[in-house]
Structure formats: structure tokens, C-alpha cells
Amino acid sequence: MKLKSFIVTFGLFILTNLIGYVFTIPTLMFHYEYTDNTNGFFITTGSLVPIIIGLVISFISERIYIYKHRQKLG
After folding, report:
1. 5-31 in b/e burial notation, b at 16+ Cβ within 10 A?
2. What is the per-residue pLDDT for 34?
3. Nearest Cα to 59, choosing from 17, 13, 3, 15?
């Protein structure tokens, strides 16, 4: 049961982090780059938003998975 729970939560965590890259949403992308060629300005940053969203969704899905698994057993 622990392996299945880990696979479900980790899969959802990865899925939520990839949504930013698939739909090119800068706020949801873990790695964001900005380049201003006229002034030679380059900045790169990492966003914590997809990590937080992924962890919240993983936590909720794990609770749902455990709840449904307990209903099957008992």
C-alpha cells in the first residue's frame, strides 16, 4: 500500500509541475528566464508556486487514496 500511495502522490506532484511547461504559464513554471537584450539584463529564477500546488494536491490525493483503501478493507 505504501508503494502505491507514493506512486499516486509523486505522479500527481510531477503532473502539476509539468502543467506550467505544457501550457507555457510562467507562474507555474519551476524555471523562469527573462532576457533584456537592449540593456544586457538577464535574470533567471525558480518559482515555488508549482511546488506548493503539487504538494497540496499530493497531500489531498493521498488522503483520498487512503480513505478509499480503508473503505475497501472494511
Report:
1. eeeebeebbeebbeebeeeeeeebbbe
2. 77
3. 13
Q: Give the per-residue pLDDT at 32.
A: 67
Residue type, 15: L
pTM over 0.70: no
pLDDT value for 41: 80
Which of the four pLDDT bands, split at 50, 70 and 90, describes residue 35? confident
Q: How far apart are CA 48 and CA 27, in angstroms?
A: 9
Q: How far apart are the first and last CA of the chain?
A: 15
Q: How many CB atoms lie within 10 A of CB 60?
A: 12
Quote the cell numbers at residue 15.
503532473
Joined together, the cell numbers standing for residue 10 give 509523486
Amino acid at 59: F
